[in-house]
Amino acid sequence: MGRGRSSVYNTRAMEHQSLFVFDIETVPDTDAVPNLTGFDDPDVAARRRELERYHLEKTGGKNAFPRQPFHKVVAISFLEAEIERDGNQEAYLLRELRSGGEAGFDEKKLLQGFFGYFERLKPRLVSFNGRGFDLPVLKYRAMVNGVSAPWLYGAGDKWNSYTQRYATDWHCDLLDVLSDYGASARVSLHEVSAVLGLPGKFGISGSEVAGLVDEGRIEDVRHYCETDVLTTYLVYLRLMMHRGTIGIDGYNAAIADIVAMIEQESGDRPYLNDFMEAWGQASGNAFTL
């Protein structure tokens, strides 16, 4: 008998070997505006205003932010850490922090790189609002660009998979988990960071991304995205310590890994020095517990 889909992809008991903390940055997809509203002025700024007008109309004036299909991905940043296990305890060994793509950006290549790396690594995903925004955007843009991602849908089973909301060993969306899936207020990454003594948002804000891309400053966007990934990882570490998945020693070892990486690479990546300075200010220079 041939091997069926379930025998190929059934990884219910799978123990992921890596964490993959990720974040994306986007700009409005102005190419879709003529098909959406009939507005055919070629000016990009005018189309962005039309997209805002459309979304304000759809939300009764409450929100001009484009819905998930109407974004182009300009940066994907990620942190990879190896997972080590000792019984029910885990430890995380930082491997790298970087962004996909080369100089400039090619959305299709970014998406191919992301999903290709994801399929090879088969990691535990970690995000902040990744279920609500990042992954839906990546899915829509993958469909636009003809990029496949079979592992995202085929791995696991009904209860344990990347598409199962409560399977946090597969995808831990911190926004979902920290709010008990909407039972309490959904707070921002910056708000969580403020109470935990972490850097949160500093320097560039998300609202500036489109302007920076227009100016050709894609590297600044990537650096901003990487610092968001670092902050997301720090929040994840604190949550895992709270849950007992890692102990205090494991938490402090993971923090030491981050500090060592910043010290080693900050000469070539000065924005990491800025992150470290902001972290020190937020925590009173108390990085470990």
What does this structure look like?
This protein has a single domain (5-29, 66-283), classed as Nucleotidyltransferase, domain 5 (2-Layer Sandwich), CATH 3.30.420.10. Helices cover 48% and strands 16% of the residues. It contains 12 helices and 5 strands. The chain has helices at residues 5-9, 33-37, 44-58, 107-121, 130-145, 150-154, 174-178, 189-196, 209-214, 218-243, 248-265, 270-283; strands spanning 18-28, 71-86, 89-99, 124-127, 171-173. Strands 3-2-1-4-5 form a 5-stranded mixed beta sheet, sandwiched between helices. β2 (71-86) and β3 form a beta hairpin. The longest helix has 26 residues, at 218-243.
For the structure shown, list the relevant keywords.
single chain, 289 residues, alpha/beta, Nucleotidyltransferase, domain 5, 5-stranded mixed beta sheet, 12 helices, 5 strands, globular, disordered N terminus
What general form does the structure show?
A: globular
Mean pLDDT: 93
Q: Which CATH C-level class is it?
A: Alpha Beta
Q: How far from one another are the termini?
A: 55 Å
Any low-confidence stretches, pLDDT <50, length ≥5?
A: 1-13
Proportion of helical residues:
40-55%
Radius of gyration equals: 20 Å
Q: Which oligomerization state do the chains in this entry correspond to?
A: single chain
User: What portion of residues belong to β-strands?
Assistant: 15-25%
CATH architecture: 2-Layer Sandwich
Total strands: the figure is 5
CATH topology: Nucleotidyltransferase, domain 5
Q: How many domains, in number, for the residues? A: 1
Instruction: List the total number of helices.
Output: 12
Biggest β-sheet strands, sense, barrel: 5 strands, mixed
